[in-house]
Structures are given as C-alpha cells and as structure tokens.
Write the structure tokens for this entry.
Amino acid sequence: MRIRQHPLALLAVALLLVTAGTALWRSAAPRQENASTIAAQLLCPACQGESVAQSQSPMAAAMRDTIAQQLAAGRSPGQVRQWFVDRYGPGILADPPYGGLGILLWLLPAAAAAVLLLLLLRALRRRAPAGSRAPDDAATPNPDAGEPAVVEPTVTQPVASDRPEAAPAGARPLRARRTWDAVAVGVVALVGAVALAAPHTRAADAKTGDATQTTSTSTLLDLARSLEGQGRYPEAAQVYREVVQEQPDDDRTRLRLALTLLRSQQPAEAARAAQQVLDHTPGNTEALLMLGLAQRATGSARATATLRKFLAAAPDDPAATEVRRLLDSKS
Amino acid sequence: MTSARRRGIWGVLAGLVVLGLGVTLAAGMRSASGGTAPAGGPVTQVRDEPAPPLRGRTLTGATFDLAGLRGKVVLVNVWASWCDPCRAELPALAAAQRRWSADGLVVAGIDFRDNAESATGLLAALGVGDMPSIADPQGAAAVAWGARGVPETFLVDRTGRVRAWAQGAVDASWLEQRVPPLVTS
C-alpha cells in the first residue's frame, strides 16, 4: 500500500494528530485550582468510586471542610493534596502517580500495540512481493516440528501475480487456527494465574470486605425498593434498618428508612431516624421535612415549627406546596 | 533460525506477557483487599507511626490534649451518636477504661460531626459520661487522623505511637487481644 495513493487517510491521520496535540496542550496548561477542584481529585474513602466533591457521606463533607480550612490557612493545593496522601495513602488520589507494578498497566498495552503493528507490517511486507518469494515458513520446511505435509505443496505452488493474497492460502487457515489456539490458551492461563495468585482472604472477609459489602448492600437496597413497590413497608423498613446498621453514614438510606417507617405507621422511629441525619447535617431539608411529618404523625407540638423551618429552608421544594396546605388546614 | 525455534521464542514471550499480566492483576487485588479481619470483628491494621496531634474542647467543655498523655496507653475512638455500631461499642470501651485505667489506659473519643446535645445524652444514658470526647463538629480531627468512617479506633502506645487501627466496631475480645500487651509493657 502506498500512502500517497490515499490522501484521505493521510488527511485523517494528520487531523487526528492535530486534535491529540491540542488536547494534550490544553490538559497540560495550568488550571485555576480551588477547594472544589481539589475535592474532585480526591476519592471519598467511605464510598466506592465517588470523589470527595460528589459524595454525600459525612466523611466526604468533613474532608471538603478540611480542604477549605487549609486553603484559607494559606496552604497551596499541592500541599493540601500531600497532606491527604500522608494520612490516607496515594490511593486517595483519583489520578495517582505512576510507579511500581502499576506502570505495567501503561506499558503492557503499548507493548501489545507495538507487537501487533510489527506483525501487521511483516504481513504487509510479505504480501507485497507476492509470487517473487515464498513465505519464510514454507521456504524452510521443518519435518521435526510435525508440520502437516499438506501445507507445503500449497504454498510452494506458483502464484498468479494479480492475486497475491492467494499465496499462503493453504497455510493461513492452519496458522490462524494455531494463533487462535494460542490466544485461547493464553486467556485461560491468565485467568488461572490470577485465580491462583489472588488472595484467598476475600471469602473469609465477606462480612467486612468493602467490595462484598457494597454488593450485598446494593442487593439489599434493591430488595427494599421492591418491597416498597409492593406496599410491604414494614418489611422494607427492616431491610433499610440492616443497611443503615452496616453503613451508619449513609444519609440517603436513613431518610428512605424514615419515609418507609412513616408509611408503615411508625412515626416515632421515623422521627428518630430523621433526627439522626439532622444531627450531623443540620441543613438537610429532606430530613427536616421527614422529621416534621413524623412529629405531626405522633401529634407532637413541635411539628409546625419543624415544617415551617423546612419551608423557610426549601421554599421551592416540590413538597413545599403540600406542606403549606397541611399547615394552613391546621391553622 | 528454524520456524520451530522462532515459534518457541514467540511462545515463551507470550507466556511471559501472560504471567506479567496475571501477577499485575493479582497484586492489584491483593493491595485492594487491605487489612485483616477476624470473623465478625473490625478490619484491623497493625501500625507503627507517630500519632497525629489531638487537642480541643471536650463535650463537657474541658480542654484535652493527647500530648499531655505521654506515658499512658490511649484508645482514640471516632464515634457519633447517629451511628448505631458506635452506640453498640461504647459500653465495651467504657468497660475497658474501668478495667485497665489503673494500668494507665485512657479512652478518648472524637465525636464526629454530631449534635453535642445528642452526644452527651447518649454518653449519659450509657453511663459513660466521664469519657473525655472531643467535639469535632466539622470532622477536622477525624480527617487529620485519617479516619475513613465511623466507628474507628486507634490504639496509641505509651510513647505516643499508633500501634493498631480498627475500622468498624471493636468488641471485648478485640480489646482483650490488643490492650494488655501495651499496658503491661
């Protein structure tokens, strides 16, 4: 293949290179850093796959406050990041520096791509002078290797010059098959190597292992939602209770528990759950609403004050209209 | 070079790549799985590093400074009244305080992002109102200690070094296993 014969391909490659260069230049350009960009670069240690900026957990909120305090005290963004790395290890960084075994993850794909390219170039080179030269493998047949005899006559036959790809036609299916066999064996070996070398403590840690816990938690949450959907509120509440027991700082589930308790006529416990959320996030308007409704259901005198506080904090909440109606009907 | 030999070299190379990938993946899984966890207990990591500073006002308004407790073994517990496992472990911590205080054990709390009223109410209800607990409304102290959630417990030896770190609620057997070696040393 001659490159000059394909101006479109050349143009596409040039365009890709220019775009990649621009992207690199833009990402390397210095950016303004503030508390929220630093929070976005740190992973929330209490959650799975969420940054400190995204997470609703109290620990992430504490970390956001800490970042703001440190910046206010005059520390540089780099110093703040290092402060967190000193305490939580390099795993706290969403984009950790390369090094150690991790560098293999970058090198191996590059090496694999290079090998593929090499093979491709070799294949192209072999095709080009088709007819003039037989492939290397066929030129030096090796009886020791157990090469099937059928390969040889096919590849050594003279080849029509207008159909160069017909040259190794007999050999290719066999070689392709062998390649696929090798790939399959490689994949099986890889899986086997990981299974053998991976730690076996996972099963023993099932109760406390983060990954296992997250899986079982999401299963439990699915179950609770399904129970809610069927109107089985007391059972759903029991499942939410279990999740909250495992993950005490999961506000969202605790509020879900409060709502389910309200629906299953257990307002006193619903009020307690909402109050617990308010204890560490006093500004949580959903918790205020839940607490007010729960207090109202228990006949508490504080219900009106709590609901008014909710209206003051979230006048545009979708529930606000309904709450105003409730308060008006009472007064 | 014969084709058989060349194929052999390619085979060995492919084998090495597969092995390298396997080792990388396995190492990644191993480092992600972290500390040891006996069935039902907290995830515990053995540490040996200087304890971060811990000073501030307790829930009762007294001043507290960990640096002044050099020579004592200190159990630093990150807790909150809204956290159910914390409520469950507080009696065990109080029992440890009573049992080993004569040997130089002090139990200190970091009350993480909590309502002070709820927190003191809970301590009083559990009969552990005398446990000094730093009010940490913004969670700055817990973050400075590298806490990842609540409850967490750090065991600090007489020289001021963190010797163990437990994620999750500790219980009587955990305390029985970890505290005596430090208080008797």
Notes: The mean pLDDT of chain B is 88. The longest strand of chain B covers residues 43-50. The first helix of chain B runs from residue 3 to 33. The two ends of chain B are 69 Å apart (CA to CA).
